[in-house]
Amino acid sequence: MEELLVVNNLKTHFRRYEGVVKAVDGISYKINYGETLTIVGESGSGKSVSALSLLGLIRKNGKVVDGEAIFEGRDLLKLNQEELRQIRGKDISMVFQDPMTSLNPIMKIGIQIMEPLIWHKLMQSTEAREKAIELLRVVGIPDYRVRAWDYPFEFSGGMRQRVMIAIALACNPKLIIADEPTTALDVTVRAQILNLMQDMKEEFGLSIMLITHDIALAMNFSDSIMVMYAGKVSEYAPVAEFIRNPLHPYSRGLIASTIDIETEESFIKPIPGAPPNPLDLPSGCKFHPRCAYTQDICREVEPECKEVRDGHKVACHLVERGEIQ
Amino acid sequence: MEMVLKQEHKKASYWSSVWRRFKSNKMALAGLIFIIIITVAAIFTPWIAPYGYDETNYAHTFEKPSRQFIWGTDDLGRDIFSRNLYAMRNALLIGFGSQAVVVIVGVIIGAIAGFRGGTVDTILMRIVDIMYAFPTFLFNVILVTALGRGIHIILLAIGITGWAGTARLVRGMAMSLRNADFVEAARALGAKEFYIIRKYILPNMLGPIIVSIAFGIPNAIWMEAGLALVGMGVRPPMPSWGNMISAGTGYIMAFPHMVLFPALLFALTLLAFTYVGDGLRDAMSPRGEV
Hints:
The structure holds 2 protein chains of 2 kinds.
Chain A: E1 3-16, E2 19-32, E3 36-40, H1 47-54, E4 62-71, E5 74-75, H2 81-87, E6 92-95, H3 109-119, H4 125-138, H5 144-147, H6 157-169, E7 175-179, H7 187-204, E8 207-212, H8 215-221, E9 224-229, E10 232-238, H9 239-244, H10 249-256, H11 296-300, E11 306-309, E12 312-314, H12 317-321
Helix pairs in contact in A: 3-4, 3-6, 4-6, 6-7
Chain B: H1 2-11, H2 14-24, H3 26-43, H4 45-48, H5 80-116, H6 118-133, H7 136-147, H8 151-161, H9 164-178, H10 181-188, H11 193-229, H12 241-248, H13 257-284
Helix pairs in contact in B: 2-13, 3-5, 3-13, 5-6, 5-8, 5-9, 5-11, 5-13, 6-9, 7-8, 9-11, 10-11, 11-12, 11-13, 12-13
């Protein structure tokens, strides 16, 4: 399969009064055409920043200090703001976490769907109007012809997320970055939105970069999974391989901390401790203070992300030594 | 059924729902009607007023309301009704005019401070703090003394002493809207910065700004009355409610109508603007109402 996006050694650092926060510190991944990559991690692990860095959308105190992101032959990190603007929404678009606040409250949703088409000069407004209505039909808004001219406050959360997806789809992008698209939604609505995204992916031939903290969702939805911890990749594998054999202790911890309906005892085993302070990261392996298998080497030497099997990469000394299999 | 639904949908725009909520507040609606009436009257004053504001008639001084002078006459035999109309005209001119100054200065300063942030913000906000800390009334007296007592000078003075609150309001909104989710979403979908400011940020600021104008107008009118009371308001014979009331208080025991009518109209006008402001604030704030 052909590669749509290849990211190599991306580093995004933020200058803060207290010091430098290495929010993303040397991550590499690729997304093929029509593929879904899920980035999993706790809050503050750098998963959102790694996506926003690609589009030049990080806050002013942040800077991409190293790396490359080849999207269809062009390095996104070397483009200027205007060139990036032309890519945003057109080739790469985004679906955001909170549909309640991500729509302009005083603009009709139909207009908001038309906007990217007009911004990118793809259509005139009459044509865009028809396209907006069509998109609302596609994403499953009932009574879409009338509802297109309603305001966001007249929709429920799930419906708004459908609208957000319609906006993201408007320009037929090649890649959609979905930043926790279901986190703010009701559990019952989540499945609907995910199914919708899956359908859209097939219908439009999209690639998706899904950002989530929900490892169960990631395992159901994606083609590859990348687990991030403290700005680094701890495990990166095709989904089938990941499900069969998650190697990194952190990945195992994430899986253990979800409810497995097949086991009798419904205990959730949380990972002890809390994510590290980004200004004061532990030495060696960033995960070692919370890891059950910690050894001396973990405290001293930072593990590199190495391929252990076909496409299965792990950053762990113990896996490397064969002590975890 | 289909038809009914469609009609209801047509009605549900943001401003029409604001209007619907505003309408349900009877006092606010009454205030708005009152304001519309006095505004129309103020525009057409020269044609409506039966007498000129400085038209003295020494045969008819201190007259009680009669058919010829419906609200009576004052110490110089001037028609109080006509003078009230002119006073109203001046009050509205000062009210709206000073708020125009306030909005222009306040929005520009507030928006620059809020969007730019950093040092620019710090400097502008310190200026705002100084404006805030300085006694407004005294500042007005100084400005009017220095620049003269023409009505335009007075409205300008009230305007340039009153923008600090608006600047703070706009700065606060600019700071929160600059990083609002929907603004970042628009940016992520390829909107240009200027378009974001024009279509996403300014319209979302409009509600609170309109409310602040509605409360600012009666304040400005009140400020002029205060200036008139210390002899710094609109220069007689040009009438203002302030100087009419202040002149009338000397005769309040013998000829209460000289104070009564301007005071009543003055109070009603302030009340009307305040109710409208209240109504607008209530109508614009509930977001997410179904």
